[in-house]
Amino acid sequence: MIVSGSATQTLAATLADETGRELAPVSYEQFPDGERKVQVGAVGSHTVVVASTVSDGDWIELLQLQDAVREAGCEEITTVLPYLGYARQDRAFEEGDPVSARAMARAVSTGTDRVVTVNPHEAAVCEFFDVPTEIVDAAGLLAEPLPELTDALFLSPDAGAIELAETVRDAYGGGETDHFEKTRHSGSNVTIEPSEAPVDGRDVVLVDDIIATGSTMSESVAVLDDRDASRVFVTCVHPLLAQNAFLKLSRAGVETVYGTDTIERPVSTVSAAPAIAPRL
Ligand code: R5P
User: Fold this and answer.
1) Which of 46, 62, 69, 193 is within CB 3.0–4.6 Å of 76 for a Cys-Cys bond?
2) Are 121 and 210 in contact, with CB atoms under 8 Å apart?
3) What's the pLDDT score for residue 258?
4) Which pTM was predicted?
5) Is 211 close to ligand 1, i.e. is its CB under 6 Å away?
6) Which atom of ligand 1 is nearest the CA belonging to 188?
């Protein structure tokens, strides 16, 4: 059986199709004081709980789903975290900070036998789980919706995401890769330094793991526009699109964003299910 969190219903249904598993009935409720309660129907002896943890409510829901499934008699639980929230808080940056990724991983580990997660921001956060944890790479699927490209350049906004750009290039079947240099000044303020690679007249595919506030991508697009790139395609695994991110991207002239359904947004046109299914 597959048991879905409220924020991953589309991906859970696609995963059910891909794996031939049944979708368990689940209901989600929120009381007037803000507390949540899920209710799960009959589950099998091995259950897959699928829940992206975008909001704090998603984390509570996930812990409740795991507990409800165990309470219903399930013997083996696999928890799929298509988007693993708090992965960017992977260390104590300042005195007095928690290692939030570790705190969340420990909590999730108490209710599961194993974890599967998709392109976590830092692979090392998987070591915080107390149960076996596998990483799925869904980046290659982002090549699917791309049209035929001219003199293609697959570009990441910083060196940290160059492997994702290489993965999309390999899945597309050709083209160069390169990366810009990013300096982050605050949560929503970044500056982008271009690279030496010529972009004039070329089709450019920007690739990153997450679009959060949209600052990184809109600054990157501005640099490419200044340098007369031809068409620019913006892609990411996790289209978080927080606050006014979509507006920011539109104002920067971005026409199309391709994201996966690890986070369900209007741009989540690529399903991560084919990459996750073989691990279940
Ligand atoms: C950070 O290193 C990540 O890979 C993304 O580049 C970042 O999360 C994007 O954030 P934003 O959209 O807020 O610029």
Assistant:
1) 46
2) yes
3) 98
4) 0.96
5) yes
6) 13
